[in-house]
Design a protein that fits this description.
The protein is of the alpha+beta class. The protein is built from eight helices and 18 strands. The protein has a seven-stranded mixed beta sheet, covered by helices on one side.
């Protein structure tokens, strides 16, 4: 019998054996030294090649630097650039000592122009310097669950202790793409920005050649050093399906990603949860009514064709609720699980307004009646 304040209903759509790695098309091959393809919603691996091998990742490092910047509360905030901030080699968004630049412009400078100056400036502004920001990067990596990654630089310049894996980069990207500012920036082909001393109009163009040339491409980040080779992270979305591809040290990365994304979008499908099978009503305390109708948000999730049956739900509701209640007020939630991990949530809400009881004499009667209803339903 359930007597706790919350009850959790856990059930699966159907029962089947789970495997995190789906067999890929036998004809699928890539030039990359390491590669991975994942479904963004579930995180399941659709294709892999040395996906957990530690390798340098060049400017795909800026996915983490940009995410940390994008998570700041005010991207309109500006900073005055110093000579120390921009004393770095490699690609640049054109920052000079004395320039004024906003956080938002730094974000676009990293994700479009791959500016090492933008990454270094971000490190000094948010971490007090390269070493301080590296600590922030590694702490964020730990929070996300990156198990084989270590950051030393914010830009991705080579260092023996600076490495990641194809899988960790895919996992990082799946988190980054949920940030609206990051998503908008990395998916932009061009951006008109204003920075300088004084600020003036600039136009930056994204280095990702697949943007505009591959249907549904989102981004995400290019990278290259002599040590790391050509590195690329992309994501594509079609018909509600989103897949993420990563290649490290890939001589033919553009074609690798076309093949990976094509396969990923063909090997996944969308499963829709209408959530019409929830309890219709919930007991109410301190109201003239005994029950209130409840509804749940619909949700659609992408998974591989072979793993659709592995998504489970936890329905979390209180045993009773107190008034007043407003229509649309959240009173519970549904957790969607894949491989025992919560991959999404949706709200359960009241379908009607219920004011608090006006008749004082009926309060205890209604209260005990509600408790009796709860007891009988247990």
């Amino acid at each position: 019998m359930k007597k706790t304040a919350l009850f959790v209903l856990i059930f699966s759509l159907l029962i089947c054996n789970f495997s995190i790695c789906v067999s890929a098309d036998k004809n699928l091959s890539v030039s990359a030294k390491a590669a991975v393809l994942i479904c963004m919603d579930t995180g399941e691996i659709l294709f892999q090649k040395s996906a957990t091998q530690k390798l340098p990742m060049a400017s795909t490092t800026k996915i983490m630097t940009s995410l940390i910047l994008a998570e700041q509360p005010d991207l309109s905030k500006t900073v005055k650039v110093t000579k120390k901030m921009v004393a770095v080699e490699g690609s640049s968004m054109g920052l000079l000592d004395g320039d004024t630049v906003s956080y938002r412009d730094l974000l676009y400078g990293m994700l479009l122009a791959s500016g090492n100056d933008a990454a270094n400036t971000t490190a000094y502004v948010l971490g007090g310097g390269i070493e301080g920001f590296a600590k922030i990067m590694n702490e964020r990596a730990k929070q996300i669950g990156l198990k084989n990654t270590n950051f030393v630089t914010p830009s991705g310049l080579d260092d023996e202790s600076h490495y990641t894996t194809a899988y960790d980069l895919a996992l990082l990207t799946s988190v980054a793409l949920k940030n609206t500012a990051f998503y908008t920036a990395c998916s932009s082909k061009q951006a008109v920005l204003y920075y300088g001393n004084p600020p003036y109009k600039r136009t930056l163009t994204n280095h990702n050649k697949l943007l505009g040339n591959y249907d549904g491409l989102i981004g995400v980040k290019t990278g290259f050093t002599k040590k790391a080779g050509r590195c690329l992270v992309t994501a594509a979305q079609r018909d509600g399906k989103t897949v993420i591809a990563v290649t490290l040290s890939a001589p033919d990365d553009w074609n690798d990603h076309r093949a990976l994304l094509d396969y990923g979008l063909s090997a996944t499908q969308v499963v829709r949860f209408s959530n019409t099978d929830l309890p219709d009503v919930l007991p109410v305390v301190s109201s003239d009514a005994d029950l209130v109708r409840v509804k749940a948000e619909e949700i659609s999730l992408c998974t591989s064709v072979k793993s659709v049956k592995n998504i489970k739900r936890n329905i979390i509701l209180p045993e009773f609720i107190y008034t007043p209640i407003s229509a649309g007020e959240t009173i519970g939630r549904i957790e969607y699980l894949f491989d025992s991990k919560v991959i999404a949530t949706s709200n359960i809400y009241s379908a009607a307004d219920l004011p608090i009881m006006n008749k004082k004499g009926k309060f205890l009667n209604r209260f005990f009646k509600s408790l009796n209803l709860i007891w009988n339903n247990s």
